[in-house]
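SEVERITY: medium
COMPONENT: batch folding queue
REPORTER: lab tech (J.R.)

DESCRIPTION
The queue accepted two submissions in a row. Attaching both inputs and their returned structure tokens so the on-call engineer can compare them side by side.

ATTACHMENT 1
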Amino acid sequence: MKTLVRIAAILSFGFFLAGGLLLVGLAVPSPGSDALPIMAVALFFVGTAFFAGPMLLAAAERFGRTDEAK
């Protein structure tokens, strides 16, 4: 279970960061009227990556091994 939560933490961080950086890449070259909302969503994704990933990793560290619990 601990390994599964660690993998989920890495995947969560990676997917949110990749999505945020992709949206930043779309918003920066076109400084039109709709660039600001796209940039806001992109920064939300990047912030979520830096919050959800470490929180899942901290949750993974709280799990003990079955032989350590006894």
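ATTACHMENT 2
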Amino acid sequence: MINGAHVIIYSRDAEADRAFIRDKFGYPGVDAGQGWLIFKLPPAEIAMHPTDGPPVHEFYLMCDNIENTLAELADQGVEISSPPTDRGWGVLASIRLPSGGELSIYEPRHPLAYNL
């Protein structure tokens, strides 16, 4: 049966973004060869949302306290590209990757499926 999930983030500077994930988040990982790092993620969950438009996928990192998380990242020199915004279902912000891409981070207000 399914025993995990593999997330892929496409990047214009994958090497710099891999180093960022390793150094700023401290995620353990393995080298799949030639410096191709694959990181262990924290617990995850998946949700299906209805849409009238084309199907898309989104990726968010989750945290317990968005203000503290963003302050810790800012102290490490990470750019906060979108400040925290209350969305009702949680508080959402984004950080900038070295490649210029963004990662969304949110503090959820819904029950956490990975606590089941």
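NOTES FROM REPORTER
The mean pLDDT is 93.
No errors were logged for either attachment.
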